[in-house]
Amino acid sequence: MGGKAAIIVVIGFMVLLGYVSRDITVVASRAQGNMSTYAAATESHNLAITGANVGLAKLYQDTSWRGTRTQTPSFSPNGSFTYTVFNGANGRPVLRSYSMIEGPF
Asked: What tens digit of pLDDT does each residue of 64-83 get?
């Protein structure tokens, strides 16, 4: 009876470890997707901040300037930012900065 029980225990462990390894594979692929999404969101955020800084520098140089500019910085070849300066409801300048990331994530 000991030999048959040992075979059942070994088969049980094989099934259990197979199920656990499948779950680990699924979790690892989800982690990779989550990391890619986070990296793209962080790069987009950094581009928007860069656009705001460049737009403010342009506005500080010429306070009467209004318009829209789009730039692709050298540190992010697959992304660009757009900043717009316009007059708000109270007549004061308003700065808006947008970013766009292109490519696979």
From this structure: 889 999 988 887 778 889 99
How far apart are alpha carbons 68 and 74 in whole angstroms?
A: 20
Closest-CA residue to 99 (of 36, 44, 31): 44
Cβ atoms of 39 and 105 closer than 8 Å:
yes
Element holding 39 (H helix, E strand): helix 2-61
Residue-by-residue DSSP string for 40-66: HHHHHHHHHHHHHHHHHHHHHH-TT--
* DSSP element (H, E) containing 31: helix 2-61
Cα dihedral 92, 95, 96, 102, rounded to 10, equals 160
pLDDT digits (tens, 9 = 90+) for 90-103: 989 999 998 888 76
Q: Could you identify the residue written with the tokens 């259990």?
A: 16
Q: Collect all residues with Cβ–Cβ distance below 8 Å to 45 and sequence separation of at least 6.
A: 99
Q: Is-above-0.70 flag for pTM?
A: no
